[in-house]
């Protein structure tokens, strides 16, 4: 077994003690920002022709980029970091010869990296259903993986995690699926209060249906959610939809994000950068980005 949960020590230490500010031209790996038409993100560096990438997230200050890669049928989590005035080459931070690690997402304070894995609780034995896990930053890299616990995870699959600025968690699960409808994933929120977390709450029928809803991204102010859904009116194998929260706390009927975003393939894994400028997502095994003004157009 080749589990590697630790960031290389030299790179991590240089990040801690010799980090230089990122200039405007160095942001987003130095890529030219997209307009209203989606383009591949960092082709030849991140988005490779012979590789399946998905599930991406930038840190709040833009100096780290995490994403998942499917390698020989197993998924692993990679990272690039801005260190000593330049971006590193992609390196692996979560991998295993048996189990998968993907759907990375940072906590609001950036000190935890959440992900999903089919590893058993003891990391020995056969693979299990997908649970939500996390690793914590340490002075030497990352901690060993910690299971997010029974309040979040069920005996079925949990996928993709995102957070509001206050710490409420959104994720998807097929915990209510039946033997006849095993692909019935729904989106849940887990509100956080001063006294600790409540129980997960299924989002209403304006968002969840008897079909597939997963890969949810929630805005930091909880004003909208973007998610992947499989519906009859869709363009392909899975489309991105958006729903906005109204002043009374209810949600608008989810709207397909249209042919600018969705194709005859599969669109999934949405993420909006902390500055609100760019929407990242996966399309046909590559990571794309587009100006986030499309969100306001759909509002």
Automatic annotation (TrEMBL):
Coiled coil location: none
Keyword Membrane attached: no
Stored InterPro entries: 6-blade_b-propeller_TolB-like, WD40
Superkingdom of the organism of origin: Bacteria
Membrane-traversing stretches: none
Keyword Signal part of the UniProt annotation: yes
Keywords, alphabetical: Signal
Identification of the protein by name: WD40 repeat protein
Native source organism of the sequence: Chitinophaga rhizophila
């Amino acid at each position: 077994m080749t589990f590697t949960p630790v960031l290389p020590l030299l790179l991590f230490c240089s990040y801690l003690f010799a980090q230089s500010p990122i200039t405007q031209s160095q942001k987003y790996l130095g890529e030219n920002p997209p307009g209203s038409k989606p383009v591949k993100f960092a082709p030849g560096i991140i988005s490779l022709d012979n590789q399946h990438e998905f599930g991406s997230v930038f840190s709040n200050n833009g100096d780290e980029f995490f994403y998942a890669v499917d390698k020989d049928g197993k998924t692993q989590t990679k990272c690039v970091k801005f260190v000593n005035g330049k971006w590193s080459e992609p390196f692996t931070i979560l991998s295993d010869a048996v189990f998968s690690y993907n759907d990375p997402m940072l906590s609001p304070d950036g000190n935890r990296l959440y992900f999903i894995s089919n590893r058993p609780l003891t990391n020995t034995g056969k693979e299990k259903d997908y649970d939500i896990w996390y690793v914590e930053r340490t002075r030497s890299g990352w901690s060993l993986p910690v299971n997010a616990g029974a309040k979040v995870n069920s005996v079925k699959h949990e996928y993709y995690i995102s957070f509001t600025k206050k710490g409420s968690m959104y994720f998807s699960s097929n915990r209510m699926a039946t033997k006849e409808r095993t692909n019935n994933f729904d989106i849940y929120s887990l509100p956080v209060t001063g006294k600790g977390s409540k129980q997960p709450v299924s989002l209403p029928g304006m968002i969840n249906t008897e079909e597939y809803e997963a890969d949810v991204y929630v805005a930091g102010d909880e004003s909208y959610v973007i998610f992947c859904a499989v519906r009859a009116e869709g363009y392909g194998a899975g489309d991105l939809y958006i729903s906005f929260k109204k002043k009374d706390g209810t949600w608008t009927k989810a709207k397909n994000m249209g042919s600018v975003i969705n194709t005859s393939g599969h669109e999934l894994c949405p993420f909006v950068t902390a500055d609100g400028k760019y929407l990242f997502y996966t399309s046909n095994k590559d990571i794309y980005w587009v100006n986030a003004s499309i969100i306001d157009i759909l509002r």
